[in-house]
Amino acid sequence: EEKLHMVNLDELENEAKYVIPEAAYYYIASGAENEWTWRNNTQAFNHFQIVPRALTGMQDPELNTEFLGMKLKTPVMICPIACHGIANAEAEIDTAKGAKAAGALFGMSTYANKSVQDVQNAVGDSPRFMQLYLSKNWDFNKMVIEESVKAGFTGFFLTVDALVSGYREANLRTNFTYPVPLAFFNEWTGGKGEGQSVAEMYASSAQNIGPDDIRKIKDIADVPVIVKGVECAEDAMLAIGAGADGIVVSNHGGREVDGAPAPIDVLPEIAKAVKSCDRPVPIILDGGVRRGSHVFKALALGADLVGIGRPFLYGLALGGAQGVQSVIEQLNKELLIDMQLTGCKTIDDIKHAKIDHLDYTAD
Ligand code: FNR
């Protein structure tokens, strides 16, 4: 396999459209209702401006960073996404390989096609967290948590913003069902975990997730739990008060509440609350990140890592593990340029970079 050639992440979407079956492509690409939130996630980065810095005397910026004790080669991470098998037969195995090669944190979905053991066999040690869609059935949750930890996943994302599926018209038009068995459900049902619709999957998951669930997870496995899907300071405080070890500022890529604010717009207020509370925790931002400058802005406004969703799946479809690696490295390349032009030698320096917030009504 060769590296995937691209000039930017957006052009991958057009190419991926030709290699991913239609219903699966729209499942990936679409958002909820009118898709305003989905579009706005990227556009809202324009509300902030990176102020270039002159005469800094700095050269050779570096991307290495640490997150909850993990040594990473980039602040870009792979968001948990269901069913990588719709993009590539190697599915999460290739994603894990690509993330490892790039030195990036890999978030794996409860709805993955490959098992946690498959991933461990393929990559050995790598920075990786498992994502949890809590089921109503805690025997199932226990199975997911215990097997994940046993297979080298060193923490969890607890997704709290998708208790039911958003109203996704594209899935209704195409009658989308997951075309590749989801490994944990297959195991749970003794090999019958095929062909569910998104709505059916969500119906089996718990809708009443509350603060106590963080403790319940930690009682099964004492590892970090990051709460994914927070869009206001109150919820960040609720999560931290309940024992969360990190939060993801996210609206699920515009797939749940259409009309929800862009993560980048709410990040400053959330970061302020988190950093000034009794037990500050790291912050991840995802949603609409397509450029190195988006990564830069998120880091400068309070994020410690920045997640990408759809683009890596397009990379996976077009180029397997190398495709995933190439997508991360494309963002790295753009980010390094902005670091040089703002005099930021390290990822920590970006956190003190000068950002303007001017209202350009004419763009
Ligand atoms: C997702 N996302 C998601 N999140 C999660 O916690 N568990 C999951 O299984 C999934 N599945 C999923 C499938 C697909 C096709 C997409 C596009 C998204 C949400 C994901 O983790 C992330 O929040 C968004 O994808 C980030 O936005 P961008 O980068 O796709 O714009």
From TrEMBL:
Top-level taxon of origin: Bacteria
Keywords for the protein's UniProt record, in alphabetical order: Flavoprotein, FMN, Oxidoreductase
GO molecular function: oxidoreductase activity
Pfam family, one: FMN_dh
InterPro entries, alphabetized: Aldolase_TIM (IPR013785), Alpha-hydoxy_acid_DH_FMN (IPR012133), FMN-dep_DH (IPR000262), FMN_HAD (IPR037396)
Entry keyword Cytoplasm: no
Active site (catalytic residues): H252
Cofactor(s) for this UniProt protein: FMN
Domain FMN hydroxy acid dehydrogenase: 1-360
Annotated binding of FMN, by residue: P80, I81, A82, S109, Q131, T159, K228, D286, G287, G288, V289, R290, G309, R310
Reactions catalysed, as given in the entry: (S)-lactate + O2 = pyruvate + H2O2
Ligand binding (glyoxylate): Y27, Y133, R168, S250, H252, R255
Family: Belongs to the FMN-dependent alpha-hydroxy acid dehydrogenase family.
Assembly behavior: Homotetramer.
Record's protein name: L-lactate oxidase
